[in-house]
Amino acid sequence: MINVGVLDDYQGRAREFADWGSLGDEVEMTFFREPIAPEDLVTVLAAFDVLVLMRERTAFPRSVLEGLDKLRLLVTTGMGNASVDVSFLREKGVVVSGTTMAGGSAGVPSTVEVAWALIFATMKRVTIEDRAIRTGSWQTGFPMNLAGATLGLAGLGRLGGAMVAPARVFGMDVVAWSQHLTEERAGELGVRKVSKSELLATSDVLSIHLVLGERTRGLFQADDLARMKRSAVLINTSRGPIVDEPALVDALRDGTIGAAGLDVFDQEPLPEGHVFAALENTVLLPHLGYVNEPGLRVMYAQVVEDIDAFLRGMPLRLIG
C-alpha cells in the first residue's frame, strides 16, 4: 500500500478536484484539512510514502524531513517551494515534483484581484466602517482617493506588471523598484523606475510582488518603513517574511504608516491572538492569493499526474 497525504486542504475540496482513484487500489489517500502543528509533523506524517503540499504553507525544514524515513516523493503545487529543504531531499534520494500552475499564470489574476481588494479595503476604510456601523457609529474617519495617488510596486514581474493597468484606470501614478528592475521593463509598462528610497518616500500604496529568497527575506525593515508617508498603506500578497513582521507591527501601532493589507504572514495560519488581529488599521486575509477553484483543479490534476508518473518509474516536473 502506498500512503499519500495531501496537506493544507483548508477548504476540504481537494478530494473532488482530481481523479485520485485513477492511481489505483494500492494507493490510499489521506486529506488534511486542519493545519498540523510544526512539532507534530514527524509523528503525524511518519507513515506516508508521498506528501502533497500547497506551496509555502506548511514548512518542511531539514529537522522535520530527517524524521520522515518512509518519504519517497514530495509533490508541491508550483515549481518551487521556499518552505521545503529541497537540497536535503535530493541528498536523501527523495523525488520532488511540482505543477506548472496552469501554464504558469493560474495565480496571476487571483493574486492581483486580492491585492486590489486589500487596497480598496484599506484606503476606503471598508472593514473599519463596517465594524463601526455594526456598533452604532457613522463615518468615523476619512477614506483616501485612489485618483491622484501613487502606487509603488516592489517587483514588476508578471504579478507586479498586472497591477499597472487597473492603477491607470483609477487615475493613479505608478512607480516601481526591485533589485534587478531594468529601464526597459519599466518602459514596456509605462512605469517610472525609481530607487528603493524613492519608492518608500513617494508611495501612497506600496504593494509587494517579489519572490521570497535570500535577497528578499527581511527586505523591508524598520528604517525602511520609517521612510514611508504616515498615511501610506502597505499591501503584501507575496510572502510574509519579505517584511520584518515585528517592525511592521510597531509601525502600525505608532502610526509610522497608515494601514496594512496582508494576505501573507510569517506563520500561517496566523496564530490565534496574533497582534495583527487586534490592530484596527489592518485588513487580514488567509493567504487567498492564487486560491481559486479553476486553478486548484488544474494543479491537483497535475499532482495526480506526478504521482502516477513516479509510481511508473518516470517522474515528471522534477524540482531541484
Keywords:
320 residues, alpha/beta, seven-stranded parallel beta sheet, 2 domains, Rossmann fold
Write a short abstract of this structure.
This protein has 320 residues and is an alpha/beta fold. The chain contains 14 helices and 12 strands.
Helices and strands in order:
Blueprint lengths: L1 E5 L20 E5 L9 H5 L4 E4 L8 H4 L7 E4 L9 H7 L2 E3 L3 H4 L2 H17 L2 H9 L15 E5 L3 H5 L1 H6 L3 E5 L5 H6 L3 E2 L2 H7 L2 E4 L13 H5 L6 E4 L8 H9 L5 E4 L12 H4 L3 E3 L8 H19 L9
Parallel strand pairs: 1-2, 1-3, 3-4, 4-5, 6-7, 6-9, 7-8, 9-10, 10-11, 11-12
Care to describe what's here?
- With 320 residues, the protein is of the alpha/beta class.
- The chain has two domains: 122 residues, Rossmann fold, CATH 3.40.50.720; 178 residues, NAD(P)-binding Rossmann-like Domain (Rossmann fold).
- 33% of the residues lie in helices and 15% in strands.
- It contains 14 helices and twelve strands.
- The chain has a seven-stranded parallel β-sheet with strand order 8-7-6-9-10-11-12, sandwiched between helices. The chain has a five-stranded parallel β-sheet with strand order 2-1-3-4-5, with helices on both faces.
- The mean pLDDT is 95.
